[in-house]
Amino acid sequence: MVHSKSDTTTMTQAPGISSAEASADERRNLISATHSGYRAVKRIFHTVVLILTSVLMAYALLMYQQQQSNWLEFESKQTGQILASQYSRIIAPSVANSDLPALNNLLAILTREASVKEATVYDSQGIVLAPAENTVSMVSEAYLSTKPPVTHVADIKNSSDQVIGYLRILIDSSVVLDPPIHYEQLRTRITAVAALIAFILGVYLTRGFYKMRHTLSFKANRVSARTFYRKTLNKRQ
Fold first, then answer.
1. 74 vs 70, 71, 150, CA distance in Å?
2. Binning pLDDT at 50, 70 and 90, where does residue 8 land?
3. pLDDT in tens, 188-208
4. Which CATH number fits domain 54-174: 3.30.450.20, 3.40.630.30, 3.90.220.20, 1.10.760.10?
């Protein structure tokens, strides 16, 4: 009878152990499948983020180049426009009175500006009235120089607001653009250094975060394993 009771006990415990093992296997398979799906979604998400980041970087670079070109063009025109507008008013009385000596003196003062390469006055018919002494060929300057000069033309008007002539100023773009280009290069270097510092800090912060994450994950897995082991023992008992 004792032998029969032992066999009965063994027979009753075996199905319980098999059920627990099957349940554990199913749980592992479910966790593995969930984890695999999560990893696939995470990879797709990171790939999309990387592609979008690359597109945004290319767009930002193109926009920066466009803005830089527009800014340099604005800087090159600003000085010449101001000089042409001011001197067209100053020389208007001399042109109206056909006072060539006074007109030549005013143009000589204008050409003393470091950025002015040439200044010429025309009448309303386009005939040259007073060219500057340091006249240069605009065509040769445009072909030989890496930074071609910029031409500005302003109307010369009398007291009745009638056009009596034109003032043409040839601006040396290298003189005008060298200072802003220098400052822009300094700003670019500072930005590059700041980006490098941010990258290095980001690498170390990310490294520290993943180390901390690994430690926390290891502790959480140990706690989960202990809890699961205790539940399994309780079921077997």
1. 6, 5, 11
2. very low
3. 899 889 989 998 998 888 887
4. 3.30.450.20
Delimit the domains of the chain by residue range. 54-174, 182-214
Q: What is the DSSP code string of 55-97?
A: HHHHHHHHHHHHHHHHHHHHHHHHHHHHHHHHHHHHSHHHHHT
Amino acid in the structure at residue 194:
A
Q: Which pLDDT tens digit goes with each residue over 73-127?
A: 777 777 788 888 889 999 999 888 888 888 889 988 888 888 888 888 998 888 8
Greater confidence (188 vs 146) lies with 188
Sheet with 163-171, strands from edge to edge, namely 128-131, 116-123, 163-171, 150-157
Q: Give the rounded distance of the alpha carbon of 6 from its chain centre.
A: 80
Tell me how many degrees the CA angle 20-11-2 measures, rounded to the nearest 5. Answer: 140
Q: Which residues contact 58 (CB under 8 A, 6 or more apart)?
A: none
How far is the C-alpha of 27 from the C-alpha of 234, rounded, in Å?
Answer: 18
Write the CA distances from 171 to 52, 111, 168, integer angstroms: 43, 10, 10
Rama region for 115: left / alpha / beta (φ>0; ψ in -120 to 50; rest) = alpha
Res. 228: pLDDT tops 80: no
Other CB atoms within a 10 A radius of the CB of residue 113 amount to 16
Report CA 83 to chain centroid distance, whole Å.
Answer: 34
Bridge partners, 71 (sequence order): none
